[in-house]
Amino acid sequence: MGNILLAKELSNRELEDIRKLENECCKDEPLNMKLNWDMLTTRPAGETNDFMEYDQDQLIGFLGLYDIERKSPDIELTGMVHPEHRCWGIFHELFILAKQECNNRKKKRILLITERHSSGGKGFVNSVGSKYSFSEYRMKFTGTTVPEFPSFGITLRKAESTDYPELQALDKIGFGSDEDEDPKNFFVDVNHSIDIAEVEGKCIGKIGTLMDGKDGYIFGFVIKPEYRRRGYGRAVLSLAMLKLISEQMINTILLEVAVENERALPLYTSCGFKEVTVYDYYEIKIG
C-alpha cells in the first residue's frame, strides 16, 4: 500500500492532484463524479474531511466527506481510485478511516454517492453492505439564450441576514430541513448567492446560485405551495439563469433534482436543461 494522508485542509498541490486523478478516472469511463469542488476548495481548518493515498508522488486514491448540514446526523461520502490501482483494497482502507472520523463526529448515517452507470462505484457500495436510499438527476444547460416566459412581475433580490427565518421556513417546505445554523454563516461565501423571489413585495420562494470555476449551479430552489402550478417557478428559474449568464459570463449551468420529484423535470427541460447522469445514494448506519 502507499502513503495515506489525512488532510485537514487541501493545499493547491493536493487540489491539483485530485483534479488529475479525476481526469484519469474519466478517461477510463465517462463519469460526472460528484466531488463538490466548491467544498473542496473551502474546507474548514482543523477538520479532517479528505483521505488521500499516494504511490510515491502520484495520488492513486481519494475519499471526501461532505458535512453539508452540519447538525444533521447524516454525512455524504464519495471518492475514486486510479484505474491502474483498483482491486487493491485502497478505497476500503480509506473508507475505514473515514468511518472512524464519522463516528468521532457522532454521525448516525453515511450516504455513499455513486453514479448509476459506474461499475466500480456499484461494486464498492455492494461490498460494504450499504442499502439503497434515493437518487438524484444531474441536469445541464449549455448556451447563452434562455427561453422566454411571462415574468408575472417577479423580481429577485439578494437575501440578507434578516431573511434567515424566511429562508429556513422555505427549506423546511422544500426539503424537510429544519437546520438551526447561525444566520451569519449563511452569507459568508462570495461564490454563493441566495435570492428571494417576490411578487409585489411578497415572498413567493427562493433560489440559490453558485459559481464553481467556469460552471454555474442552481441549488435550494423552492416555491411556496400556494404559488405553484401558475408558471411562477419557471419564471424564477429563468431569471436566475439569466443572472448567472449576464453577471458571470458563463454558458454552462448545472443542477440536481431528486428522482422522486419527477414532476419537476418538465420545469427544467422547458428551460433547456438536459439529463447528464443519475447519482444513487446508498446508506450505512453507524454509531
Brief characterization of the structure:
With 287 residues, the chain is an alpha+beta fold. It is built from 7 helices and 12 strands. Strands 1-2-3-4-5-12-6-11-10-9-8-7 form a 12-stranded mixed β-sheet, sandwiched between helices.
Structural overview:
The chain is an alpha+beta fold and 287 residues long. The protein has two domains: 3-136, 3-Layer(aba) Sandwich (Aminopeptidase), CATH 3.40.630.30; 144-250, 3-Layer(aba) Sandwich (Aminopeptidase), CATH 3.40.630.30. It is built from seven helices and twelve strands. It has helices at 12-28, 37-40, 90-104, 119-127, 164-175, 232-248, 265-270; strands spanning 3-7, 50-55, 58-66, 74-81, 109-115, 131-142, 154-158, 192-199, 202-212, 215-223, 252-258, 274-285. It has a twelve-stranded mixed sheet, with helices on both faces. Strand 8 (192-199) and strand 9 form a beta hairpin. The longest helix has 17 residues, at 12-28. The protein is globular, with a radius of gyration of 20 Å. The two termini are 28 Å apart. Residues 180-184 have low confidence and may be disordered.
